[in-house]
Structure formats: C-alpha cells, structure tokens
Amino acid sequence: MINIKNLHKSFGSNEILKGIDLQINKGQNAVIIGPSGSGKTTLLRCMNLLEIPNKGSIAIGKNELMFDGNKKVINSEVVALRKQTGMVFQGFYLFPHMTVIENIMEGQVTVLKRSREEAREKGLELLEKVGLLEKREEYPYQLSGGQQQRVAIARAMAMEPEVLLFDEPTSALDPELASEVLKVMKGLAKEGMTMVVVTHKMSFAREAAHKVVFMENGLIIASGTPEQVFENTSNERLKQFLSIVDD
C-alpha cells in the first residue's frame, strides 16, 4: 500500500529526513512517535507531497514517484499521488462561512465533480459515522474543537482516499475533546482504514496501532507492533523516550 525508500528532505542546509525506509500494508494503522524535531510531520507532509522530497521514492497503491533534486516533478504525477491521500491537520481548517455539511460537500463537488445531491448524501452518511449528524447545518464557530476535528475527518473521508494521514490531530484539544476524536479514529482503524498518524498520544498507539514507528533526528530508530515497541524493545533511546513521555 505505502512503500517509501531512501527518502531525504532538506530545507536549505538543514537535512530533516536522512534516508527513510517505511512500508505500511493496506488496512494498517501506523503510528509515528518521537521527540519534537525528529522529522515526523515532515515525513507525513512528504507522503501527500505538501513537501517535495529531495531524493528517494514514494509509492501509494499503484502510484509511485521517484525524486531527484535535479529533476522537476511533473504536476500531474503529484496530483495523482495526492488523490490517494486525505490529510487531517492539527488545525481544523474548516471554511468558516460554510455550514458543516457544506464543508464536507465542497471538495466532492469541485474536485470529484459529484452532483450536490450526491455530495450531500455522502456528507450526511459520514457525519452520522463521526456522530455529528445533528450539527449538519451549524457553522464551525458553533462547534467545539473536538467536533470541528471530527468534521475535518469526515471531510477527508468524503474524498474516498486510500490512506488517511493525521498530523497531531488532538494536540490543540483538551483531554475530554481529544477522546472524542480518538474514539472516531479507533473506529476507523477497526474498520480497516489505512492510516498514518503522527501523535504524542502513547495510549492511542498502544490500543489502536498495528505498527508503531519511532523517529529521531530524521531517521527511523525502531519499529514494530505495539507490544514490541512498548513492552519488549531493546533500544535504549526508545526506552528513554517512553520513560519520560506523558501519555
């Protein structure tokens, strides 16, 4: 499903990713953990090409792109790969002038060229899935942060991506609101949605991940099942990280 080989990304002279190799199977929930500045978010943004890697390759499904700093990436290939992913950010980025249902319909109508009737039907189905059907005609300012993030998840799912990417989806929320979002994400994981989640929530990684990836200094230091990473690791740096992390 996802196959990343020798991925490098630099900003000027600052090398953020230093040769990442990562494979994620269809239906897996892969959770990326690690200290701040380890390259987690940059890796996620490279997966949907919000950042263009300098070197290496990314394959998602049948779409694969090779990167070479001396060769310009073809825009149509970027679009084709990006269509395979849906992104949920730390901030919710809902359109403030649109209702909840209109937010979910917008991408379907403009990008997927669905009729408004079809887009609305799909949107209502997804709002019911995330537990917000009764909020369909409200505006973002009328929602809590947790509710806004759940709408953002529904909006990403409406585009029917192969993979959902989450960048610290609960970092801006208090624990009670965060639990609402994590509950939805755990449900998606159980249903077999392929997901890549950058988070500091170790409890979510323990409970919902199929694969846990530990990054530091732009490299993958350790990876495995939750049991291998949290209970049986021999990696001293990972042990140190887990001993001081809050959740």
Summarize the structure in words.
With 247 residues, this protein is an alpha/beta fold. It has a single domain (3-246), classed as Rossmann fold, CATH 3.40.50. Helices cover 38% and strands 26% of the residues. The protein is built from 9 helices and 10 strands. The strands form 2 sheets. The protein has a 6-stranded mixed sheet, with helices on both faces. It has a 4-stranded antiparallel sheet with strand order 2-1-4-5, with helices on one face. It starts with a strand and ends with a helix.
Provide a compact summary of the structure:
One of its GO terms (cellular component) is plasma membrane. The protein is built from nine helices and ten strands. By secondary structure, it is an alpha/beta fold.
Annotation keywords:
38% helix, Rossmann fold, 9 helices, nucleotide-binding, globular, 247 residues, membrane, 10 strands, ATP binding, alpha/beta, ABC_transporter-like_ATP-bd
Element pattern in H and E: EEEHEEHEHHHEHEHEEHH
Rg from alpha-carbon coordinates? 18 Å
Report the CATH C-level class.
Alpha Beta
What would CATH call the architecture?
3-Layer(aba) Sandwich
Distance between the termini: 29 Å
User: Considering the protein shown, what is the CATH homologous superfamily?
Assistant: P-loop containing nucleotide triphosphate hydrolases
**Helicity range of the residues?**
25-40%
Strand arrangement within the widest β-sheet reads: 6-7-8-3-9-10
> What is the third-level CATH name, the topology?
Rossmann fold
Mean pLDDT: 94
Number of helices: 9
Instruction: Choose one word for the global shape.
Output: globular
Percent in strands:
25-35%
Kindly give the count of domains: 1
The main sheet comes to: 6 strands, mixed
Structural class determined from secondary elements: alpha/beta
Number of strands: 10
Q: State the low-pLDDT regions, or none.
A: none
Keywords: ATP-binding, Cell membrane, Hydrolase, Membrane, Nucleotide-binding, Transport
GO molecular function, one term: ATP binding
Membrane topology: Peripheral membrane protein
Organism: Clostridium magnum DSM 2767
